[in-house]
Amino acid sequence: MKGPNLVAPVQREGLRVLGRPQDFAIRYEAEGADELVFLDLVASLYQRPFLAENIRKVADMVFIPLTVGGGIRSVEDARILLLNGADKVALNTAAIKRPSLITELAEALGCQCLVILVEAKRRNWGWEAMTDNAREPSGRDALDWIQEAEALGAGEIILLSVDRDGLGQGMDLGLIRAVSALGLPLPLVASGGCGNAEHILQGLQAGANAVACSSMFGYWYVGQVAAEEGGAFTEGNLEWKQGERGAAPFLGASIASVKKQLSGQVRVRI
Hints:
The protein is 36% helix and 22% strand. The protein has helices at 21-31, 52-59, 75-83, 93-97, 100-109, 142-152, 173-180, 197-205, 215-228, 238-241, 255-262; strands spanning 6-10, 13-19, 36-39, 66-69, 88-91, 114-123, 126-131, 136-141, 156-161, 188-191, 210-212.
């Protein structure tokens, strides 16, 4: 999200508006989504908290768990989101800048609702944890940071590959395997790069406990709306979809079709 709008980034950049979050949430729940994640991509950059009224609009319309992140810098920031309908809160920038915040939140609210988002960017030595919507390097090794976050009280990790984000060409399986090999006793949710059901399966086989997808379902929904209205794509990363970023055509898929494809191979939660 960027403010009140649902957006689709490519490698965390080039944000294009897809539409209203509540419209997508309603369609996703109807399609069989098990959980939704909403991240305000510019809240930390603009040094403001997640706009609580945005999540309240979604929470009033759907009845599946919601994870919400962006701009959380205190226990009170997190509490406000939980009171407005979030089931879990996700932190990145503030936690890296002040790791003790993780412990404060875990003690005040419980580790079961505390998620650490790790925006990992590949370097020649491994992966670096990024901040401010992957704009700023932290100097922290992503694997070391994940271990520290777990020790401080994190209850879940969302692992986002910045390099694969929004391309629909497959996940960073090396990154997932490396984090899985740490053997940490908390759920690992992998994200970044899914373009079809096979990509989700590969992420799970690499060691993720779950896979979070955004553009794959967002573009499918935009396409459905366009088809219902008798037109072509009019929203989203149109330049990228036409191949100007060197990516293959990426039209996405529905949640229902992905679940059907994977139902005989893995236990699927999307």
